[in-house]
Design goal:
Blueprint: H1 3-6, H2 9-30, H3 47-66, H4 77-87
Length: 92
């Protein structure tokens, strides 16, 4: 996703495709049990949530700077919901 900042044209499109593929993997594998869990590891924030929160934050920054929406609620409903839960959580 970091290449989105430094590229344009075809290279930026490839970076976008790679980022969307990575988001798809997180959605389908990392959060496959999300309906039963509040966060990656269960009902409380754990190390995976903390590690991934930086990525989630910078993804929003990149979207703003590049002017391209990557994380759409319709395409990535579990990941989108996780970000909203994490941002509003006091379960530290």
């Amino acid at each position: 996703m970091w290449f989105m900042f430094r590229t344009s044209g075809e290279e930026q499109e490839k970076a976008k495709k790679d980022t969307l593929e990575m988001l798809k993997i997180v959605e389908e594998i990392g959060l496959r049990d999300f309906k039963e869990k509040k966060f990656f590891g269960g009902d409380k924030i754990n190390l995976v949530d903390i590690a991934f929160c930086g990525f989630a934050h910078w993804l929003g920054v990149i979207e703003d700077v590049v002017g391209m929406k990557l994380l759409e609620a319709e395409k990535f409903p579990r990941l989108y919901a996780w970000i909203k839960k994490f941002q509003g959580s006091s379960s530290y």
